[in-house]
Amino acid sequence: MYYILLEDKYKGKQEDIGCIMSKFSKELYETAGLSLGIYLGPTHQEIESYVKQQNFEIVLEEILWMNMNQEEKINKFSDYLINIESEQNELIVIDSYFFPPNYNEDYLEMILKIVEKSKARIVKVITSNRRNRSLESIFIGRIRGLGMNLDIKYSEKFHDRFWITDQYKGFITGTSLNGVGRKISSINYLEREDIEALFEEIINLVQ
């Protein structure tokens, strides 16, 4: 794997980036025994060209690290929701543990802020029947209090967690929203054909 340093949201001084990366590299090594090295290979454009020529696929997986704070979680999901064009579109959240049996006020505030920042025209949550009725009731009231349309459906079909829009864009997470930050997990954009297959499975639920 190789990564590119994205600086579009960096608010510090340019000359401090080296020190930040040095500290990050040290923590990465002490935590997991992994090291960062200088990359002397081809450019990103050359890699993309090679991948296309060989009919390979670029994996867009990103890591959700342990101990992410509330703001980091909200910002991460908000960024992904912007990229899948949730604003003024239908957003479908498939997560069996969207309403976990054990939760606190911080979790409620987090899901409310993420859903609010999506600016979706309507939000449809598909979750398990083994739900927390108390949290669900509070969530429904708070979301509708924001003037957003909400619909909740129940299914036991799904294991993974999907966030998709009716623009056939979406992403998948390796853990439920309530589990982000507890253990290292992944988040990854979905291919259009995978989303089309998902819609075939959920079409009767979301109509």
Describe, in plain words, how this protein is organized in 3D.
The structure is a single chain. A seven-stranded mixed β-sheet has the order 1-7-6-5-2-3-4, with helices on both faces. The chain has 207 residues and is of the alpha/beta class. The protein is 40% helix and 16% strand. The protein contains six helices and seven strands, in the order ααβαβαβαββββα. The N and C termini lie far apart (40 Å). The mean pLDDT is 87.
Summarize the SSE layout with pairings.
Layout (H helix, E strand, L loop, with lengths): L16 H16 L11 H10 L8 E3 L5 H14 L6 E5 L10 H14 L3 E6 L5 H13 L3 E6 L6 E5 L4 E4 L11 E5 L2 H15 L1
Parallel strand pairs: 2-3, 3-4
Antiparallel strand pairs: 1-7, 2-5, 5-6, 6-7
Which structural class best describes the helix and strand composition? alpha/beta
Task: Give helix % range.
Answer: 25-40%
Main beta-sheet annotation = 7 strands, mixed
CA(first)-CA(last) distance: 40 Å
In quaternary terms, these chains amount to: single chain
* Helix and strand element order: HHEHEHEHEEEEH
Radius of gyration (Å): 19 Å
Give the total of beta strands: 7
- Please tally the helical runs, counting DSSP H or I stretches of 4 or more residues: 6
Give the amount of beta strand, in percent: 15-25%
Which regions have little confidence, pLDDT < 50, spanning 5+ residues?
none
> Which overall shape is indicated by the principal axes computed on the Cα atoms?
globular
Averaged pLDDT = 87
